[in-house]
Amino acid sequence: MLFDEMNKNDQLVIGDKSFSSRLFTGTGKFNDQQTMVAALKASQSELVTMALKRVDMQHRDDDILAPLIKNGMKLLPNTSGARNAKEAVFAAELAREALQTNWVKLEIHPDPKYLLPDPIETLKAAEMLANKGFIVLPYVHADPVLCKHLEAAGCAAVMPLGAPIGSNKGIKTADFLEIIIEQANIPVIVDAGLGSPSHAALAMEMGADAVLVNTAIAVSGNPVAMSEAFAKAVQAGRQAYLAGLGGQSTQAVASSPLTAFLEASL
Amino acid sequence: MKIHVNEQTIELAENTNIEQLLTHLDKPFIGSAVAVNQDIISRSHWANTIINEGDKISLFQAIAGG
Question: How far is A52 from chain B (nearest CA, A)?
Fold first, then answer.
């Protein structure tokens, strides 16, 4: 079957929504709004993350919502800044009002140095938010046991990290991501740390359902071109996963016949 | 009357509702969330929620983020 044909039926379903693109993107760290919108369009991403902040009374911020909504992107507010479950639930409820969506990327990382997610508070918040009817996508360490707990708590997907947020280090958690992917009955979105298109392709080859990329695109030399590169890599990785990768072996396995025809002709 | 918005004290006319407050502050409706004395007010109730003297309003806004 041609990939185009394969691809048409290859929708990712999360909660009540299906996605054609398996590249999700963040809106942070872009130099300007125009570049951000152009890059997100080039990424073909259908789900983009946003944050919430307390309004600065002295300044009026740019309206970044209008161009995103106009381009048909679904907005996924995060709870960044929340230090515990209680704050995260409050942030999610504010975000629901601000963006009129019950989707939330749950992130609780109290330590600003490594921004690693707090598993205990995240699980608590996930249970509370799922009970309140939110579509919860928690950002977590690549912990297979925690991911099963989050699934049982009613999360719509899990978002394990490849490496610390914004580090661009790639997939440092590969062995554990593989276990998470193998065990999950909900989509697995590899989030954080993906620094290059090859990292994204690798995640998709491993069977991740999607990846979320922000920093690697936003701080690159050309965010629009980099978005396109990530889109291609995610597609290639997905296609490779669906096609089924060949197995690995320690010994060489010849690709050409080893009959000694040269010797025979001497 | 005096009210507090994000820790800043401002003067506001009596019987002002939340929609009118946002307009007064030149803040957009879309992308904004409002809590009055820590209670989040859903957007459908902005027009009929009257602000009282001394209320502590928290105003939040969607911004770029990962």
Answer: 4
